[in-house]
Structure formats: C-alpha cells, structure tokens
## 1
Amino acid sequence: MHTSISVMSFNSQQSFHRRLFADQGSREANQLLRLLLAQDGSTTRLCEAAAGGPVSLRVLSQQAHGHVPAVVRLQLPGERFIERITFLAAHGEVLMDNLAYIALEGLDPAIETVLLAGTLPIGHLLARMWVRREAVADAQDLPQRLWDAVGLPDPSATRCYRIVTPEGPRMLIAETYRRGMRMATPPRT
C-alpha cells in the first residue's frame, strides 16, 4: 500500500476535517478508542485499514535541533533530535495527529536520510526494523506541543510511547486519534 506524502504549511490543512474522536457517551466509539490506544502495532497501517486504502501524510513541521522538552532528553539518547509534526488523512478527514522526536545519535545514516527527507510515514519505516513500543506516562509536554500545532486537544484519544530497537531507544511519539478513524470504509470502484 502506498501512502502519499506532502509537506504543507499550517494554513493549507484547512481542507481537512479535524474532529474529536468520540461523541460524549458514544459506547461504540469508546470501545474502538480503547482498542486503538492499547494496540502496539503500526498506527499507519491501522489508518490505512480505516481509510480502506492509502492515506496522505501531511508534514506540518520537521526540523533537526537540540531544543527539546526535558522528557525527550530523559527518554532518548543524544543531543540532537528530529522533531516531526504530522497528520494522516484520507477522504477529507484527519485520522490522527502525530508528534515524534527521533534521536539522531547512533541512527543508521540511511534511516536518518529517509527521516529527514520526510518521504515515509514512521510506521512504514518501522516495518523494516525490529521494534518494541513502551508507554510513557510522564510526558504531558508532548501532547500539549502537538495540540498547540494542530489546534484541537483531545486528551482521552491521546497516547505517548517510546520506540525501542535492539540498539536502544530511538523515538518518542505522541499521537491523537481523530474522528476520521471511525469513517465507514468507502466503497472500492
């Protein structure tokens, strides 16, 4: 499955609907949300499944630097990190918003090149690697940073976790699921 990539300014995301994941009291939505928050596989693949095909990766911001929240330095090695703010969308709906910090120290140069190019969703990149996801409880700064960038907080649909490889911790991710994950799969033509 091929996911398209585009780098965009903050203002150009207006054509996508970004909505809270669940309606108040929606039992079905809350059950789905519990499954999404508990899963430990590729969220990119889940978004593709919800959309019934490829999704668009929209890169809102990506830069390599050393100015990161304290939790990043506690969870990841090194002094320089890629900060990447993205969202995945399909059929005019935002499926999820993401903030990722990637440690550059010890990172394979080929992977660093792909990450800096912003040409693949992290989920597609991780499919090439053995990884483990570990929940991170004390990372309140990360969702707030994400919501400041995208404009819509949704604490109940948000999680933070660390990606660990055999070489050690590599990434720290905050993601917020959006109502687009609940879309009915469009018919294939």
## 2
Amino acid sequence: MKALFKIIVYFITSIGFFWSHLDFVKFAYNCHVEGDVFPDYYAAMPFIYKSDSLASSMATEYYVLGILLNSILLTLIFLYLDSLICKFFDKKKLLLKLYFAVKIFVFLFSILNIYFSYTFIRDDHFTFKSNFREEIKMYKANCKARIVFFSR
C-alpha cells in the first residue's frame, strides 16, 4: 500500500511538473515551411507534450498522451532517485525528515500548478496526441531540433 501511494504521489508530481511552465530541459522542434506558419513543438522526455498555438501567442496546445507517457517515465526516475536517496540517508534520521519535507513541498507545488493551470488558464487547448509527424510529411517542413535549458 505504501508503494502504491508513493507511485501515485510521484505521478501527480510529474504531471504538475509538465504544467508548471518551468521546464528545466526541453527539446524544441522549430519547423519552417516556405510561405506558411508552423508551430514549435516541445518534448521534455522522448514524447512531444505541447506546441505553440497558431491562434494566439498566449495559448499552448497540450497533448494528453505525451503528458501521460512523459509522466510515467518521470515517475520511474523519481522512484529510482528516491530509493537511492533513502538508502544514502538510511542512518541519518534528521536528513530523512528534511528530505520528506522537501518531497511534501514539491508535491504541494505540483498540486498548485495543476490547480492554476486547470482553473485560471483558459487559452490552452488539449488534444489526445500530437500529429507532428503527419504534419511534417504533409507540409514537407524543414525541422531543426534544439535543446533549450531553463526557459518558459
């Protein structure tokens, strides 16, 4: 039961991470089509989870499947790091309590991100999956991938 609770908490934390708009590292796909406007696509893990909306500069289009698959991978990374940190702090009770407090803070921050993103940001659009590959083939776009650190 404790392991299931930990998995659920880390999964919620990873979903909050993707809605925080504080991406530490992301892959940006800038595509150019002659005479046409093409959105930028973003992936934080191997799956594309958002793109810029062409309708408004303030809107973002999110892909539910990309968020869920990236969240599963991030949850596995969190579980692995958590096991390493707990083994390292095994004998130090004070450090374990501080680590637990940090985990609670990050979890509450993620819940707050999900709440704000869901209730106050109405320009965003959600679709099930990205059609990135189909659009590139259809428009014969020239795409360049780049890694972006610490951006909005």
## 3
Amino acid sequence: MSFYMISCSPQKTRGSKRLTQGVKKLNCISKVQLSDMAFIVNADCEVDSIRDFLAPYSCEDDFIFIIPVDISHWASKNLSQDAKKILVDWGKELNK
C-alpha cells in the first residue's frame, strides 16, 4: 500500500474540472479529496504512472505535483469530516 499526495494548479479555468475528473478516474485502491486541487490516493503504482495517467487531463502549462506521503502522522485545519474519516481509517489499516 502506497500513499501519494497529488497537488494540481491548473492555469486555465477549464483545467480544474478536467484534472479533478482525471484523479477520480485514476485506478487506485482509494482516494480522498483534501481541497479543490489536493488529493491523497492509495495506489499500487509509482509516481510516474500517476503523472502519466493525469497528463491527458491537463493542459500543457498546468502544474501537477505527486509525492509519496506518510499518512500515520498528519494535522489539519478545516479539513472535511469525510476526508478526516478516510485518513483515520487508512491509519487504522496500517496499524493492524
């Protein structure tokens, strides 16, 4: 199980919707949307594969950043209850 943070910054208005659609279509175990353009995914793949999958959903000048994350330690402010629940559940699974 690997967790990755995906942060996107579309340079054009239409890019936001397309990138979000791309993340939602990403083949992964589970995912959580943290904010408009920030996600954590639980996936059995490498960062390059995620980037390559999202490329068709982005414009040439869109910013996409993907990095492995340790979900056992995190803090938040104003994170939705749904997102918190998913992160807590993932943490419980890791500690089994």
